[in-house]
Write a structure and sequence with these properties.
By secondary structure, the protein is of the alpha/beta class. The strands form two sheets. It has a five-stranded parallel sheet with strand order 2-1-3-4-5, with helices on both faces. A four-stranded parallel sheet has the order 7-6-8-9. The protein is globular, with a radius of gyration of 20 Å.
């Protein structure tokens, strides 16, 4: 029991530091400036897995209306064929030892792509030094999912330093930090209520499509911290398939909608229709609402609620929120 309590206290401390991590990451971004002069890129591919990979998806969703070139993702060992010397590869691995990311980076080097890495050290740093690529060092030693603040700020900083987006984007992280801190009590209350709502049910998370990265982050947190399975989908896409699947729905499902005030007008109508349809199969329907003026700030507010919810749900079921031995066992199996 004490071991589980200690682990959950450790996780609590890490989640508590999220606003502080944003400030620390901003300081790192100002201290570390890219030194090389770079060409004009035609596309960007962000390579990263799990807690390191989700940062790229979030940042991409925040800057999609600011950047003039496409951003794609590689969450595997191999890169898309189109990657070439006009491609920017951003390799993100908190540990610096993620084998899929390292494999993709080595292929990128062979293809002549430009590479910039974000890591805490490890093989990724060594390879960057050997192959003469720039990298940004972030604090390590904690679960990658708790290092999100560093990932999202420094990825955003890279885009800004390369003049792919405005450098002013970083100011939104300070605004997000302030909103999270000023609403701390409300966030904790909502997280505890949400944990009660989810407990002993099968969770399905819905968001508007531009917030899908937030829904993925939520799913990952419930997977790793709370040790539960859950699914996610987006509006309007779910209206073309999963909505029909609700004919087979049942009351053991808990449905969580991530709502913001910037939904497309058509999607607002789709949301209302979807809720009415789902209510025929389950009464367990709940929405959480963002605060803030921009998609970045709204996303981080929702993420903070979910992070706390995942911990409170773990504590409710006497679950160790830090424990991920099955992933460690997989890595050892792959090594052998």
């Amino acid at each position: 029991m004490s071991s589980i309590n200690d682990s959950n206290q450790y996780m609590r401390n890490l989640i508590e530091k999220f606003p502080e991590n944003l400030t620390e990451a901003i300081d790192i971004s100002y201290q570390y400036r890219l030194k090389k002069e770079y060409q004009t890129f035609r596309n960007v591919v962000i390579c990263g897995m799990g807690g390191s990979g989700i940062g790229g998806k979030l940042v991409s969703s925040w800057i999609q209306n600011d950047i003039d070139i496409p951003i794609n993702f590689c969450q595997d060992y191999t890169l898309p064929k189109y990657v070439n010397n006009n491609t920017l590869i951003i390799a993100s691995s908190n540990s610096g030892n993620t084998e899929e990311t390292i494999s993709a980076m080595l292929e990128a080097d062979e293809k002549g792509a430009t590479i910039i890495a974000v890591c805490s050290g490890g093989k990724l740093q060594s390879l960057c030094e050997k192959l003469n690529y720039e990298y940004i060092i972030v604090p390590g030693g904690n679960p990658p999912r708790t290092a999100l603040g560093f990932s999202i700020v420094l990825l955003t900083s890279i885009f800004g330093q390369l003049n792919l987006i405005s450098k002013e984007k970083l100011k939104e992280f300070e605004q997000a930090k302030d909103i999270i801190i000023s609403n701390k009590n409300e966030i904790h209350l909502e997280a505890k209520e949400l944990a009660d709502f989810i407990n002993n049910k099968e969770l399905i998370i819905y968001s508007e499509s531009k917030y899908e990265a937030v829904a993925i982050r939520a799913r990952q947190q419930f997977n790793e911290n709370s040790k539960i399975l859950c699914n996610h989908h987006t509006i309007p896409e779910m209206n073309h398939n999963e909505l029909v699947g609700w004919y087979g729905g049942a009351d053991h499902y808990a449905v969580l909608f991530l709502e913001t005030d910037d939904w497309h007008e058509k999607n607002k109508k789709r949301l209302d229709f979807s809720i009415d349809t789902i209510r025929n199969k389950t009464t367990n329907i709940k929405s959480i609402y963002s605060k803030g003026e921009t998609i970045l700030i709204k996303s981080l507010y929702l993420i903070n609620i979910i992070d706390w919810t995942s911990l409170y749900l773990a504590k409710k079921n006497n679950i160790d929120s830090v424990y991920i031995a099955v992933i460690d066992n997989l890595k050892n199996t792959l090594k052998n």
